[in-house]
Write a structure and sequence with these properties.
The complex is a heterodimer of chains A (146) and B (138). Chain A is of the alpha+beta class and 146 residues long. Helix content of chain A is 38%, strand content 18%. In chain A, helix 1 runs antiparallel to helix 2. By secondary structure, chain B is an all-alpha fold. Classes of the chains: A alpha+beta (146), B mainly alpha (138).
Chain lengths: 146, 138
C-alpha cells in the first residue's frame, strides 16, 4: 500500500531532477566557454539536453484508485552536442592552432547560456511551487477535521 | 318545532352504519363480521409471506477475528512509518554526500510530515469517539 498524500509529487520530483541536470549542463557550457580542446582532442561543443515524457500506466487503471505501479513524469533521454561551427581566431602560437594558425573557439554563447540558465531556474521554481501548493492542499484537506 | 323536524331522524343516522341498520338481520350481521375477519386473515398471510430477518449467527469472537479496523489502522501506521524511514534515508544520503537531490529529500520529508499529521488527525478522531462513548448515559 502506498499512500499518495501529496498529489502530483512523483511527476514534479522527476521534473526537478530533470531541470537540475539541465542546469548542470548549462554550468558545463559556461565553464567551457573558452575551452579549445575537449577530452577527445576536439574543440568543445555546446551541449543540450533532450527531455522525454515518461508514463508507466498499469493496464487496468481505475480513476481515483492509487496504484503503486503508476508512475509518470519526465526524464532526460539524451545530452547531445550542438554541431554549429565555432568562431575561428588567428593565433599561431596557440597549442591548439591548426596548420593555418587558426584556433576554433567553442560555439558557446555565454549570453544565450544565461538566458537558458534563467529559464531552467524558473522551471525549477515552478515545480517547487507545485510541490508547495500540493502540500498545502493536503494540509487544508486535513483541516476539515479541526 | 321547526328546528327539531329539520334534524335527521334516528333511523337515518342508524342507516349510515350497515351494522347498525335497525332492520338488519342477525345472519346479515354475522356475514358482514366474517367478511371483515377474512380480510384481516388475508393481511396476516401477506405479512407471513415476507422473509424473516436473517440473524447474524457468528459469535462475537469470530467477528473480532476477521480482518477489521485494527489491522487496517496498523497497516496505515506502518505506511506512515515507511514514509518517515524513506525520508530519513534520503536526508542521510544527502548529508553524507551519497546523493545530491535536495528536492528529493525535502519532498520526502514533506510527504512524511503530511502522512504523520494525517495519522495524528485520525488518532484524535478515534480518541474523541472513544471519549464520546464513555460519556454515554446508561
Amino acid at each position: 500500500m502506498t499512500m499518495n498524500l501529496i498529489p502530483g509529487v512523483e511527476s514534479t520530483g522527476s521534473a526537478l531532477s530533470a531541470e537540475k541536470i539541465r542546469l548542470e549542463i548549462i554550468a558545463q557550457n559556461i565553464a567551457n566557454s573558452n575551452t579549445t580542446q575537449d577530452a577527445d582532442g576536439n574543440v568543445y561543443k555546446r551541449k543540450e539536453v533532450a527531455f522525454e515524457e515518461y508514463v508507466k500506466i498499469p493496464e487496468r487503471r481505475v480513476p481515483g484508485y492509487v496504484d503503486e505501479n503508476l508512475y509518470q513524469g519526465v526524464r532526460v533521454t539524451d545530452v547531445f552536442d550542438d554541431q554549429t561551427p565555432g568562431r575561428m581566431i588567428y593565433n599561431p602560437g596557440h597549442p591548439h592552432a591548426n596548420e593555418d594558425g587558426m584556433v576554433e573557439m567553442p560555439n558557446v554563447d555565454v549570453s544565450r547560456e544565461m538566458v537558458d540558465l534563467i529559464s531552467a531556474s524558473r522551471a525549477y521554481e515552478a515545480n517547487l511551487t507545485v510541490v508547495k501548493t500540493s502540500r498545502r492542499m493536503a494540509q487544508q484537506a486535513m483541516a476539515i477535521g479541526k | 318545532m321547526n328546528e327539531i323536524s329539520s334534524l335527521p331522524s334516528l333511523s337515518d343516522l342508524l342507516g349510515q352504519n350497515p351494522n347498525l341498520r335497525p332492520n338488519v338481520t342477525a345472519s346479515e350481521l354475522r356475514s358482514n363480521f366474517e367478511n371483515q375477519i377474512g380480510s384481516t386473515n388475508q393481511a396476516t398471510t401477506n405479512v407471513n409471506a415476507i422473509t424473516p430477518v436473517q440473524i447474524d449467527k457468528t459469535s462475537p469472537t469470530e467477528r473480532v477475528n476477521a480482518p477489521g479496523f485494527a489491522s487496517m489502522f496498523e497497516n496505515f501506521i506502518k505506511g506512515v512509518d515507511r514514509k518517515k524511514k524513506i525520508s530519513a534515508k534520503e536526508t542521510q544520503d544527502l548529508i553524507l554526500g551519497r546523493s545530491d537531490n535536495i528536492h528529493e529529500a525535502m519532498v520526502k520529508s514533506q510527504e512524511a510530515g503530511v502522512a504523520f499529521n494525517l495519522m495524528i488527525e485520525v488518532r484524535n478522531k478515534l480518541v474523541d469517539s472513544y471519549k464520546e462513548l464513555m460519556r454515554m448515559q446508561v
